[in-house]
Amino acid sequence: MAAGPTIAALPAGLADGAVVLGIAGFGGAGGNGGNPGNGGAAGIGGLAGGASGTDGANGKVGFTPASGGNGGDGGDGAHGVTAGVSGGAGGAGGNGGSVGNGGAGGAGGDGAAGAAGADGAGGTVTPFTTGGAGGNGAAGQAGGHGGAGGAGGAGGSKSGNGGAGGIGGDGGDGGDGGDGGNGGHGNTGKAGIGNNGGSGGHGGAGGAGGNGGAGGAGGASTNGIVGADANGGNAGNGGAGGVG
C-alpha cells in the first residue's frame, strides 16, 4: 500500500502515512464597529478591527476539534459634541464560534449639554410714563440623550458564553434659562413725581436639568421735580429649574 500524504506536526501515536480525516473548526465572528464608534477589538482567532474571525485549525481524528474564535467587542458610540446632540449607540458584540464566547457590546456615547437660553431684553424708557417691563429670559435647551449600549454577542452553539451588553451613555445637562431683562427707568411725571420703573422680566425656565435664569432688576425711578421719588419696579422671578 502506497504511503499517504505527510501531515506536519502530527500528534503522538500517528505514524506518517496514516489516514487522517480533518474536522473543520468554526471561527468566531468579529465585533461590529459602532456607528459612529470605532471598530471592535479583535477576538481570539479574529482579524484586527472587528473583522470576521478566521476558521479554527482542522481537528485530528481521535482528538478534540479546535475551538472556534471569540467574537470581537463592539466599538463605543461617539459622544455628542454640538449642544443638545445625543450620543451615538455602541456597536454590537460579535457572535462566538462553535465554542467561542460572544463579544461585549460597545458603550453608548454621552449626550451633549444643552445651550443656555438668551437673556431677556431690557425694558423701554418712554417719557412721562412708567418704564417698560424687561423681557423674559428664554428657556434653556434640553440636553442630548445618552446613546444606547450595544448588545452583547451570542455565545457559541456548544459551550460559549454570551457577551455582556454595553453601558448606555449619560444624558447631557439641560442649558440654563436666560436671565430676565432689567426694567426700564421711569421718567419724571408731569406733576413732578417720578413714574415707577418697569418690572424686571422673569427668568427663563431651565432646560432639562438646567437652572432657571435670574430675574431682571427693577428699573430705577428718576427724581420728581416736586414730589418724592417713585418706587423702582419689582425684580422678576427666577425661572423654574427643568426636570432632571
UniProtKB/TrEMBL annotation:
UniProt-recorded name of the protein: PE family protein
Top-level taxon: Bacteria
UniProt region (Disordered), positions on chain: 136-195
Source organism (scientific name): Mycobacterium intermedium
